[in-house]
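WARN no homologs supplied; continuing
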Amino acid sequence: MDRLDNTIRPYAWGSTTAIPQLLAVEPTGEPQAEMWMGAHPGAPSRTDRGTLVEVIDADPSRELGEEAVAKFGPRLPFLLKILAAGAPLSLQVHPNLEQAKEGYEDEERRGIPVDVGHRNYKDANHKPELICALTEFDGLCGFRDPARAADLLDGLGVDTLKPYVDLLHAHPEDAALREVLTAVLTADREEMAHTVAEAAAACARLGGEYAPYADIAHHYPGDPGVIAAMLLNHVRLQPGEALFLGAGIPHAYLNGLGVEIMANSDNVLRCGLTPKHVDVPELLRIVRFEAADPGVLRPEASPDGEEVYETPIDEFRLSRYVLPEGAAVHDLTRATPQILLCTAGSVRAGEHELTPGQSVFVAAGEEAELSGVGTAFRATVIV
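OK structure emitted
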């Protein structure tokens, strides 16, 4: 079992206080957005045996287990993070596996360097993800019913939004959402900036259900993504609640601290709330234009005390243990690789005492016991 030394990414949208507070260290004054746990080449966790990439590369079958290697290849299939949003992240969507392979192969064929800003596909993998709230956590997830979105836009009293309101009322669901998102993202930038400014002022004045969009507009003045965001469901997670974000579902995280797990991929197509590249034609190919309930997940408890967040994919499986005083020792030995992360109290994983924010990697088949008083998340795969 390897204690992990993890990198904190200083993205501009990160909270300056949430991760330091979790780790019980002094803030630096700089944003601390994500702490990465895993073997992603961009920021692999470090161990006494080298980086986790080096550890796995040296003997994939031993570290990951033969079944996991046979199913996913000789790499850790997931990336675990602590995510601390102090400002809204970009409005985005992820491709499915087939779309990712097609997009990656096409850009490779066209000779687009993988590190340039207008490259869409960094790899050939999909990127389903799950976010579990540690604090109250605000986000946007999936399209609203078009009629409800029309009412929300109409309530702002902004004349230049009337054509979008009419479109949302006049077409079938998928066509309505597609036409409005396309119109918003392809509108004249100067005209759209004026519309966003008017909408932002109205949101600030009205408050209530409009308040999240006023805050988004404060961080991204004039961005067409502010209007696009109003087409989506606003969700407020309570601690322990989660969202699963599958392929094609537009989403954005707005504020809060959470544990995030995802397939090991960098593929993101942005819809707005960003200075980065927005490829509208490719985005429209990927987005699923259907209204849906965001589907807040609550963990399902098993008799042994493990609380599992059920998702429809195999690259990751996230669960947690909430350990009270006097709790039994839990045997976590498993034939697949695991990362154990403490988020509250003090827990013991094997010989390692873990406090909030500390984590360990457990190789496939390695004996692993969990005890103590606190909360620990367990990340693994399904084979």
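Residues 214 and 329 are 48 Å apart (CA to CA).
OK
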